[in-house]
Amino acid sequence: MRTDKRYHADYLKLRIYESDLMAINITSLVRKNILKMKKYASARDEFTGKAKIFLDANENAFGSPADQELNRYPDPLQKQLRDKIAAYKGISSPEGLFLGNGSDEAIDLVIRAFCEPRVDSMMLLPPTYGMYSVCANINDIKIIEVELNKDFSLDVEKIIETAKTENPKVIFICSPNNPSANVYAEEDIEAVLNNVDSLVIVDEAYIDFSDSPSWVKRKDEFNNLIVLQTFSKAWGMAGVRLGMAFSDPEIVQVLNKIKYPYNINDVTANIVIKTLIDPSRKEEMVDKIKKERGFLMNAFSNLALVKELISSEANFFLARFDDPDDVYTYLIEEGIIVRNRSNQLHCEGCLRITVGTHEENKILCEALQAYTKRKRS
Ligand SMILES: *Cc1c(COP(=O)(O)O)cnc(C)c1O
User: Fold this and answer.
1) How far apart are the CA of 42 and the centre of ligand 1, in A?
2) Residue 315 CA, ligand 1 centroid: distance in Å
3) C-alpha–C-alpha distance, residues 2 and 120, integer Å
4) Is 243 in the pocket of ligand 1 (CB under 6 A)?
């Protein structure tokens, strides 16, 4: 919901027609030591062309005991995998795609590439995903917080004003947001992108469960935009650890410069390449999860103990209770684990429920009905 204040704010159009001036200077944002350093040159980096015999990397030429051929180091720049993902995602070039050991690696690398410890800052919009602040703390980067509005929408004006005074290197926008499960209005994110000199990360870990389009499609319009996606959620492949960052190729180059040389292993690459040949299973699962989300939220809306349901564009949702700790503990006793988010900003009384299989969801609902009965008697 747009508030009048935000609707009338003229910053929304401030930079819309200045597309050339809008581009930020990425090089000037990179930490000086990162600009200066030489990246690790792996054996295969130094050689181009065709060869018959590889005696350059101290590998075991006899093979490996595993049932796949894994005795060779993987391609540091993951050419084949990046080509396949870029084609699947329909981006203009694989140069605009970075692959990480989960999107968590991309989060950490962006901070390490651009934020000078104890000097620079980054902006978070709580309540949001916990890894951003963990990575900030590991790297000793100051966190500037601009709270979401009570309805979990962006406080665009405050974000832009605060960015002007505090100059954060990076702003983290999680959409759909974890834990609130809402997508931010496109014009709100656009206003931020257009009116800050920071990098803006739009974390789309849950975008497949949303009806809103991905920002990947608009990546080329904003050179300060980094879109994160992952194989961990909709694809059902949290175990392979593969995350994607879509951005200006200049940013991808910086991230590739500082990552571990072989951050994506061949087991992961092979499985994902195979999976991309037929994405229909993933689409089926997403449909099922969305249907189950409807089933679960409908059942929750009929439970008297649920005070409020926050609508969801993800594979989880927030439900508000009078006594969330008691419900949480009860569910644990029943062998059901949900996430207690009641200590987070604007999430008073909230448990975060991940959508499960139909069987699992039914068991959860029955447990909550039994809880209600027990409380009444
Ligand atoms: C789950 C999640 C991720 C995924 O992280 P991976 O390292 O790719 O598994 C990223 N961002 C948010 C907000 C998440 O909830």
Assistant:
1) 29
2) 12
3) 32
4) yes
Are 290 and 361 part of one and the same domain? Answer: yes
Q: How many CB atoms lie within 10 A of CB 297?
A: 18
Q: Indicate whether this model's pTM tops 0.85.
A: yes
- The reply to whether 207 and 227 lie within a common domain is yes
Q: Give the domain range for residue 61.
A: 5-277
* CATH at residue 289: 3.90.1150.10
In this structure, the answer to whether residues 204 and 307 fall within a common structural domain is no
CA atoms within 13 A on the CB side of 39: 19
Q: Judge if the beta carbon of residue 127 lies within 6 A of ligand 1.
A: no
The answer, yes or no, to whether the previous bond of 176 is cis (omega within 30 of 0) is yes
Atom of ligand 1 lying closest to residue 230 CA:
8
- Is the domain of 286 the same as that of 273? no
- pLDDT of the chain along its 377 residues, tens only? 333 444 444 544 454 444 445 689 999 999 999 999 999 988 777 777 888 999 999 999 999 999 889 999 999 999 999 999 999 999 999 999 999 999 999 999 999 999 999 999 999 999 999 999 999 999 999 999 999 999 999 999 999 999 999 999 999 999 999 999 999 999 999 999 999 999 999 999 999 999 999 999 999 999 999 999 999 999 999 999 999 999 999 999 999 999 999 999 999 999 999 999 999 999 999 999 999 999 999 999 999 999 999 999 999 999 999 999 999 999 999 999 999 999 999 999 999 999 999 999 999 999 999 999 988 87
- The token pair at 277 is 């040949």
Furthest C-alpha separation in the chain: 78
